[in-house]
Amino acid sequence: MASNVNPTVRRRRLGQELRRLRELKGMTAEEVAERLLVSQSKISRLENGRRSISQRDVRDLCGVYEVADQRIVDSLMQMAKDSRQQGWWHAFGDIPYSVYIGLETDAESLRTYEPQIITGLLQTRSYAEALIQGALPETSVADIEKRVQVRIRRQERVTAETNPLRLWVVLDEAALHRVVGSRQVMREQLEHVAEMSQLPHITVQVLPFDVGAHPGINGQYSILEFADAADSSVVYLEGVTSDLYLEKAQDVQKYTVMYEHLRAQALNVDQSRQLIEDMAKAYAR
Is 45 helix (H, G, I), strand (E, B) or coil? Predict the structure, then answer.
């Protein structure tokens, strides 16, 4: 990116402000849609930041909401302009989870639960290549390489010398046993996780098999938090054909409580690192 503007975050903030203006006006999304002769779904997508917002959209909405202060209109118009810039990930072409990458790039902290694999931000190149090839068997070599490059670029957030992403990972023990690539790949991968877990801003815990049923039994999820108070936390659920982003306070709170239970049931940091190191040694035999 040529600047520090994150288009994904700009769209979120702009959408939140447009929703606030609509609610101050006492209008429903349906009423706004009728006034502008557009679909209600368009208004919803503009407000949740999942759709690019043009300056014309902002102008029309400000007109409906009767925003009298031109400085506010100009500020929102500039946000709309910024939101249409491209993030670094756009250089890699069509990335299915580009919205998530934009959020992750701007997040202050990330808590994630992984039931089957090593989380992307801690993957080695060899592990990532084997994982993507296995998960997407019909993907071309070129596309696999593109996805790997994006994954490696994302990892710069956790290795940055200044203001690195605070990362807390709960790994199901299954992720340590699932052989991705080869035993050699797994040995190197687990050694890497053990090494990264010693950084002060990275915490890794393993959820052992013997805990039985647990709050994360339904699958992987992540909670992203941001430094700016204007940016609400987001729960991210990855899907095969589409992803889900939850931003309502009650939804975020529910997943946060679930995560606290997972952390409590998992091995502590030292026990987790010891288990990971032991598994790495086992793969070397």
Answer: helix
Q: Which residue has the tokens 């925003």?
A: 67
Gyration radius (Cα) of the chain, Å: 21
What is the four-CA torsion angle of 246, 251, 254, 255, rounded to 10 degrees? 0
Residues 183-209: pLDDT tens digits?
A: 999 999 999 999 999 999 999 999 999
Spacing of C-alpha 41 from chain mean position: 23
Between residues 181 and 49, which one has the greater pLDDT? 181
Give the type of residue at 194.
A
Separation CA 12–CA 102 (nearest Å):
10
Strands (E), 137-176: 166-172
Give 96's Cβ-side CA count (13 Å radius).
Answer: 9
Antiparallel, parallel or unpaired: β 166-172 and 109-114: parallel
Which has the closest alpha carbon to 155: 185, 121, 132, 184?
A: 121
Q: Measure the N-to-C terminal CA separation of the chain; round to a whole number of Å.
A: 45
The sign of the CA dihedral 189, 216, 166, 268 is negative
Q: Which two tokens stand for residue 148?
A: 């790997």
Amino acid 67 reads V
State the pTM of this model.
0.77
Tell me how crowded residue 34 is: count the other CB atoms within 10 A of its CB.
12
CA 146 – CA 94 distance, rounded (Å): 10
DSSP 8-state assignment for residue 212: -
